[in-house]
Amino acid sequence: MRGDIVLSAYFLSLSIIFGNSMTEDEIEKYRQKTKAMFYHGYDSYLQYAYPYDELKPLSCSGHDTWGSYSLTLIDALDTLLILGNASEFRRVSKLLSETLNFDMDINVSVFETNIRVVGGLLSAHLLAQRAGVKVEEGWPCHGPLLRLAVDAAERLLPAFNTPTGMPYGTVNLRYGVPPSETSITCTAGCGTFIIEFGTISALTGDKRFINAAFGALEGLWKSRSKLGLVGNHIDVLSGKWTAQDAGIGAGVDSYFEYLLKGGILFGLPKLVDMFKEFYGKVEQYLKISDWYVWAHMEKGQVTMPIFQSLDAYWPGLQTLWGDIGPASRTLQKYHSVWRHFGFIPEFYQIASGEPYSGRAGYPLRPELIESAMYLYRATKDPYFLEVGRDMLHSIESSARTPCGYATIKDVKTHEKEDRMESFFLAETTKYLYLLFDEHNFIHQRNESEHHQTTSSLSLSCTTGSAGYVFNTEAHPIDVGAVHCCPSSRLTHVPEELKFRHLFNVRTKEPLKENSDTDAKTFTGAYTCKARPFHKKLSVLGAFFEGSKEFSGDLDEQIIDP
Ligand SMILES: *[C@@H]1O[C@H](CO)[C@@H](O)[C@H](O)[C@H]1NC(C)=O
Ligand SMILES: *[C@@H]1O[C@H](CO)[C@@H](O)[C@H](O)[C@H]1NC(C)=O
Ligand SMILES: *[C@@H]1O[C@H](CO)[C@@H](O)[C@H](O)[C@H]1NC(C)=O
């Protein structure tokens, strides 16, 4: 089944759009430009910002944003190998395994720590042998980066100790869930763990992780509305929705993504069935002339006809699912917004063709290029190379600074802001590179290749040959590796759902007097934190009540930019 889904994406080659073909030389030129873009950002981070989390590309300095763990370095690590830089990958792997320590009195986002830190470390751990790292006896079931990933993930587990199985949004890395933590979190914040936690359980045999991820997925599944939709924010203690707008974008996005990708990675039809069910409902209730909008989860009526930058992952997911025609039509809509402004604003009003005021920025997000990469792999239609070329061009000409690449504050003015999110080096540059690098190892599948490092590994262990599934931060997880470690019995996991209450989560230590002067709370503008109940939708730290901007008959208003 896993194979069928992946292959359908590769063999269903329906060219619908037909861009002007690009010569090999042009493609190579863009590949080199992408590489130079990555190194300008990466070298600047090392020079001006390390060991802080992120680079500040206007002030040429660094700052901590999501934790205090050199986040950009963790996030960029596997991109180095994808760009062919094995020696730097080895240097950074060693550096991180010698310096990272998660035993800190800091409050962090459970979701972001999982996708960026746990995901980044797991991916790098599984790529270590390919990068020429002298791996430990028993790799991939053992290794220093795996131990770090497990350490970080273990500190997130207390968040899952709730009556619904859905996690709190924030934990203190040392003390567990802060006593006054809100019980409201977003849908994606509940449903985006199965790739990382399932991989940890598969490699270590420790079932607490996959059980926690499954418990949260089950909690969400049970909370869907009669129409079969999920809302935007939920109370993890009561299971009641506090923001009932259903959509594919911010606050929800990677929940759908992880159902399909988790199903593919672990060969779990139950997850694929859940995805299939949601996919039908999304297409039925949220789609209007190839755009996706927000609708009330119980009543189904459209509440906000906006396109969000984060929505742009959807055509890539549709492509993985094999629905290529609709995927390319939607991608063309999104690309038309890019061409109009040179970037995609965080929120775009479909009816008026204008950015939503206060949400007009572009923080160097990857989703459009991610979808273009999937569609190009599936169709080989050069149109999708042109999407990459357009993105490369705008970022290079408007976001570049002497020491990195800057968030665009407003897509209409191209004014810059002093921030370079770690996903620029983890995702945006990686997907661009993979679009232009036909022969990258990430694209290859070689079923006849069996890398067996030790005789104790299971016979179905085929690292590096069964393809990769990207987590939502673009960290590739080696599909073959999840079957390597003898203790894993992943195919039986769904049955274990009923034992969820047996989790052995870290018991909360009493909150000690705070003696650590560096103690900080990292609840950056992008986490899913507490949202007032009366607010319609809360995304990226801002609240939207809906407004007259969102009224009238949508079908008649929708125009193309
Ligand atoms: C690898 O990255 C380092 C740091 O940016 C750089 O100095 C080195 O030239 C790169 N090597 C290759 C082969 O690209
Ligand atoms: C697949 O792996 C085998 C064994 O390593 C190798 O001989 C063969 O050339 C590979 N095929 C491709 C298409 O890479
Ligand atoms: C973490 O959050 C709790 C509750 O909001 C707060 O009391 C505590 O001081 C925070 N810890 C740090 C290190 O900021």
TrEMBL record:
PANTHER family: ER DEGRADATION-ENHANCING ALPHA-MANNOSIDASE-LIKE PROTEIN 2. Residues 1-23 form the signal peptide. SUPFAM superfamilies: Seven-hairpin glycosidases. Coiled coil: none annotated. It comes from Porites lobata. This is alpha-1,2-Mannosidase. Keywords: Endoplasmic reticulum, Glycoprotein, Glycosidase, Hydrolase, Signal. It is found in: Endoplasmic reticulum.
